[in-house]
Amino acid sequence: MPPYTYQWYEGTTPIAGQTSTQLAITKNTAGNYTFYCKVTDSMGQTAKSNTVTLTVRALVPPAAQIISVSPNPGKVDQPITFTFTGNDSDGVVTRYEWNWGDGTPLVDGILGGNGVPLSISHSYKGSGTFTASLSVMDNQGAWSNPVSALLEVRQSQPPRAVIDSPLPSSITAGQQVTFSGHGDSADGVIIGYRWTSSIDGLLSTSSEFSISSLSIGSHTITFQVRDSSGTWSDEETAILEVKEATTLLWPLPLIGGFAVATAAVSLIHFSRPPSSTEVKQDLRKQRDREAKKEEKDREKGRPEIERGKPFLDLKTDSPPRIMGATSYEARLKVRNIGSREAKDVTVTADCTPGLLLDKQVEGIPSLEPGGERLLVFPFRVSEQVRKGVYTLRFEVRSRETWKQVRNRYARAVKIGLLSNAEKQENVQPLREWLRGKSYTYDELTSADHLVRCLLKYDLIILAPELELPQQWMRNLASFVENSQSLLVIDKMITSEEKLLAELLGYDEMRYETFKSGEGLLRIRDNEHFITRELALGEGIQLGQVWGNACMSKLTIGKSLIEHYIREESKNAAVIPALTINEFTEGKTVHLNFHAEKSLSQLSLIVEKTVDWLLLEDIVIQPKAWSSGLRSLKLAPATLTELFQNILRKKGLK
Q1: Domains of the chain
Q2: φ and ψ at 602, to 5 degrees?
Q3: Tens digits of per-residue pLDDT, 439-473?
Q4: pTM for the complete prediction?
């Protein structure tokens, strides 16, 4: 009779708390277990259920398997591929977990089923021996025991590229040139080559090739090799200048007074020198490229420093501008910023033709951490040096550090002094001043041959009272149009009025003959006064009429004059006025003289003007000039004498 009570038994032992019609139980041990239930009614009558046997089997964990690790040994920062799988006898594998053994975070993911292989890559940031371990999980949440693989990671030794063919320093556009090189590798075999040009980009992927289509300009030819580990070598470079070929046709004499239909002609080739703008652009590219390479070396050296190895930090310095037949110094500071001694440091110096190094090798037996050495490499510039970019190359290596290369680039500049042979009294003081300022120059008595003569120079200085025939004037204009510079000192005589106005910056110039007290300018016996509005291009003879004057808005000259007067004294002498002009691609400066007491500042002004015309990174700043005038000594006697003579001829002294 109801109600009924229930009690479950395991074997013959009652199970505590199991007094309902259903039994829920967990067994942690494999085996066979028997269960039954005893039922009691309200009258105390009992009944026993049938006995049920439960078999509990042990849970079998999945198994992980590493199939392969490649490459082993591997290289620092080189991906290493791990191929693996997993199996589960009583279910299916679902996930994996890798521990790379280098302190980086664990990596997990999903597996596709029993026995399905999967690959994953990992890059080690340092060298050494590492244990990478793998675990897999099945669909019942059971993890396998980890399996591991031992691998060695080595510091990569890049291969070395060598340019075999001795390249010419220059060729003519269209001329064929052959490039040949090879490589050495301690880690494998050479399997790849790469030749590039700083102008034309990729040239070839062969060890040897010939080409005749290089663009005009100064090329930095770069050669690299790649070994079987996939590592590219450091760049090996060579400078190759490709010049434009100008063809002049000279007909042969006629035979017997008759023109022959198949008359032969003689071809004479001239190479156009690079323009000053092309040289500056090449210099800028080279320096930018070197800066990126230095930053790459520093990044490459950080792991070495962290691992307690020596690392050499290099800083170079050399003159940015060089001139022929002059001596200079290049400096290299070598500093050990690692935490271990650098032994047997060797510095090898090299340079492009035209520069002559006094020494090429210097050694440092030992450099302690934090220690530094300053090495000085004197060099000379050949008298035959042409304008362009020249390279000083420093290769530094030690017993425990890789090779580092530093390149310093210098711009070789050329100055020409153009004068009339019959007026040497105006030229000699300029010659002596140029020598006194270490400016090397060539004496020019003709401006006829633009390609063969003028374009070899960055700057042409026109001596005072220079008479310019029409063709000379036009050649000088072409010279400036090709991005060269022109410095005109005092007056010049030519019939090319319009071209002269454009060249010297008198764009809104007007020509007038003045009498005493007329116009905005007061002129009496060739003495004059500069207003705040106009600059007088005094001393320029246009056409055949002496005494004409050209005027334009004041530019730098006005700022310079006003600032000097304001800073120094209201009674100070007016310094020479400068008219600065950007004529097409080039630059011109016209120096005018308007007062007899303006000579004590002349040397500084002319020197700054020459620097500005030669180098684009020098900017004319009137304030900076005037601040330097206070402590300025008198100009060299030769230059002062020259302009005293000029003023005397004008009736001002």
Answers
A1: 5-56 (no CATH), 63-154 (2.60.40.10), 163-243+274-412 (2.60.40.10), 415-649 (3.40.50)
A2: -65, -45
A3: 888 888 788 777 667 888 999 999 887 888 888 88
A4: 0.51
